[in-house]
Design brief:
Blueprint: E1 2-7, E2 10-17, E3 20-23, E4 26-34, E5 40-45, E6 48-56, E7 61-65, E8 68-76, H1 77-85, E9 96-99, E10 104-109, E11 116-117, E12 122-128, E13 131-136, E14 141-146, E15 153-154, E16 159-164
Antiparallel strand pairs: 1-2, 1-8, 2-3, 3-4, 4-5, 5-6, 6-7, 7-8, 9-16, 10-12, 10-15, 11-14, 12-13, 14-16
Amino acid sequence: MKYTVTVERTEHDVEVIGEGVRVNGKLLTARLEAIPQTPLRRLVLDGAARTYAMIDSGNGWEVLSGGRIRSVSIEDERMQQLRSAAGAGDRYDHGGIVKAPMPGLVMRVEVKVGQQVEPGAGVVVLEAMKMENEIRAGSAGIVSAIRVEPGQTVEKGSVLVELEPRQA
């Protein structure tokens, strides 16, 4: 099966082939294992193992790696064909909300009401598990509301920032 995996704004062509994957044309052995009852996944890629925290954000995945949260979306061939048939060119929704992918303490708010943001733009920095995690916008839009302030504790799923679609 073929997929397009978008990490932040960079697309990668991924094809799953038995015990391996072809990523942007390069054949690798790969295995992704869930660690039971945690959001952790262990990726073994050509013998090298790495552990990631992965949370389904509803618009894709939020992946914690190296103290940084990255937005990741995965689209299979069938979804690409449906999107193409529907005439949808832009893969990102416009507007929406940015939610906390984990409980934590708001360290910084990096946007202002009225500011335009692109997909992957940092909007809030949360401290969780003694690490600072940059929470990023999953879509383009204009910041219409900021629902948190520095020093505030938030629960997983709390609304951090609201975005409205840009006017054409």
